[in-house]
Amino acid sequence: MTGFFNTVRQDLASGLGLLTRLPVMGLLSPAQRNSMVAWPLARSLWCWPLVGAGIGAITGGLGYVLQSGLHLAALPAVTLALAAQTALTGGFHEDGLADMADSYGANTRARKLEIMRDSRVGSYGVIALCLSFLVRAGALAALPAATLIPALALAGLLARAALLWVPTCLPPARPDGLARSLSPLPKTAFGIAQGITVVAYALWAWWWAGAGAVAHTALALMLPPAGAALAVLCLSHAAKKHLGGYTGDVLGATATLADCLTLAALTASVHP
């Protein structure tokens, strides 16, 4: 059992270290902290949806406190919460969205991949970032303050689960980088990640349907996962057509778009 728990601890440290800026060394055993062996990033993907849900819950909690505790108006409250979320994650996925958007200014696959590795952000990237934050802030401002935690937890869960589907559809576009380290995708870890997502979504839908602040039509409950699936389909198609495969930036863009579409879809369940 000790070996199993050490594996889980290392996986959680890998997932948190990748998706957040939180210190993670405390999760490891002394032997793991002193080891020179690279962390098993691909093996840790089973916990990515859970990490995403945790990030969303923290963000939602802050938004709730700002609205209900400090009585800030909805839009500035959720915007500040999203700013805190960006600090927590380092804008990891948003960087991928900006890079992928900037690549549309090039005509060849090689030039697109070159642009996506450039740390500078162009006009397409700025526009994409502004639109993504506008959609999320607008959607969250339309939701009751009491639902911010479950709404953002769901969005974080589905966004990280959604990005894992891209490597199942496409090969890596480069021979190195994050994309290469996830190929071939570990089937067991992927299955656990999706299983966790399905169970968590079922529990969320049960709670959301019973919440007095929201409507609970079947269509409204189906829209969030449909939005995440749409993000996967759109960006997988774009990556295949323009890049010949996926990169880490494509995964980040998928997560960000899934986040936006999930939150937008949740506004359909708010009572008029």
Automatic annotation (TrEMBL):
<keyword id="KW-0472">Membrane</keyword>
<comment type="pathway">
    <text>Cofactor biosynthesis; adenosylcobalamin biosynthesis; adenosylcobalamin from cob(II)yrinate a,c-diamide: step 7/7.</text>
</comment>
<feature type="transmembrane region" description="Helical">
    <location>
        <begin position="45"/>
        <end position="66"/>
    </location>
</feature>
<feature type="transmembrane region" description="Helical">
    <location>
        <begin position="148"/>
        <end position="167"/>
    </location>
</feature>
<comment type="similarity">
    <text>Belongs to the CobS family.</text>
</comment>
<keyword id="KW-1003">Cell membrane</keyword>
<feature type="transmembrane region" description="Helical">
    <location>
        <begin position="121"/>
        <end position="142"/>
    </location>
</feature>
<comment type="function">
    <text>Joins adenosylcobinamide-GDP and alpha-ribazole to generate adenosylcobalamin (Ado-cobalamin). Also synthesizes adenosylcobalamin 5'-phosphate from adenosylcobinamide-GDP and alpha-ribazole 5'-phosphate.</text>
</comment>
<dbReference type="GO" id="GO:0005886">
    <property type="term" value="C:plasma membrane"/>
</dbReference>
<dbReference type="GO" id="GO:0009236">
    <property type="term" value="P:cobalamin biosynthetic process"/>
</dbReference>
<keyword id="KW-0460">Magnesium</keyword>
<dbReference type="InterPro" id="IPR003805">
    <property type="entry name" value="CobS"/>
</dbReference>
<keyword id="KW-0169">Cobalamin biosynthesis</keyword>
<protein>
    <recommendedName>
        <fullName>Adenosylcobinamide-GDP ribazoletransferase</fullName>
        <ecNumber>2.7.8.26</ecNumber>
    </recommendedName>
</protein>
<dbReference type="GO" id="GO:0051073">
    <property type="term" value="F:adenosylcobinamide-GDP ribazoletransferase activity"/>
</dbReference>
<feature type="transmembrane region" description="Helical">
    <location>
        <begin position="213"/>
        <end position="235"/>
    </location>
</feature>
<keyword id="KW-1133">Transmembrane helix</keyword>
<dbReference type="GO" id="GO:0008818">
    <property type="term" value="F:cobalamin 5'-phosphate synthase activity"/>
</dbReference>
<feature type="transmembrane region" description="Helical">
    <location>
        <begin position="188"/>
        <end position="207"/>
    </location>
</feature>
<keyword id="KW-0812">Transmembrane</keyword>
<feature type="transmembrane region" description="Helical">
    <location>
        <begin position="72"/>
        <end position="92"/>
    </location>
</feature>
<dbReference type="Pfam" id="PF02654">
    <property type="entry name" value="CobS"/>
</dbReference>
<keyword id="KW-0808">Transferase</keyword>
